[in-house]
Amino acid sequence: MIASNLSKLLKKRRQASGLTQTEVAKKLHVSRQAISNWETGRHLPDLILIDQLANIYGISIDELINDNPPKNIENPVKRTYPLLILAILITSRLTIASSSRSLLIMDGLILLSIGLFNLTKLKKLKLQVALQLISLMTFLICTFKSNILSSFSFQTTTFIVCIILSCQLCSTYHYFKKRSN
């Protein structure tokens, strides 16, 4: 039963990719008869050939042998960075900010990080990266522009946030790059 299901799936995947048995056989360096035997259920390909077939058809091994639709891969850390930034800023607001000016600046940065948290839902890489770069620049300015708040604690907080934003930027880029391959 498993062999007949696999043979049907192999034929279905080959046809869906628009390849003939001969073309697949040439790519795998096997005979056309071997492909035919796999698709009729007389024989089954070994694991190495199943991996190569999946690569030829542009699908995962799981999709090839189980007929599972591709799962939407979720970036595991996409919400981690904004939450970490938010936690750092809220903690800093409660411990560092003492004047009304410092409270307003911290509140503005907290609002910016909440906006960044909501931007993780965007699907477009260029827009997401651009907004992350704008946030990074904002925090860098807060870190090194001494007339915004001259508190060492504030500058340390914003510098830590810059490091986290840089990590988020790299993570976002690599995730989208991996997903597009």
From TrEMBL:
Family matches, as InterPro entries: Cro/C1-type_HTH, Lambda_DNA-bd_dom_sf
Ranges for domain HTH cro/C1-type: 10-64
PROSITE patterns, per the entry: HTH_CROC1 (PS50943)
One Pfam family of this chain: HTH_3
SMART domains the record matches: HTH_XRE
MF terms (GO), sorted A to Z: DNA binding
Residues spanning the membrane: 102-120, 127-146, 152-176
Keywords: DNA-binding, Membrane, Transmembrane, Transmembrane helix
Keyword Isomerase on entry: no
Protein name per Swiss-Prot or TrEMBL: Helix-turn-helix transcriptional regulator
Source organism of the structure: Ligilactobacillus ubinensis
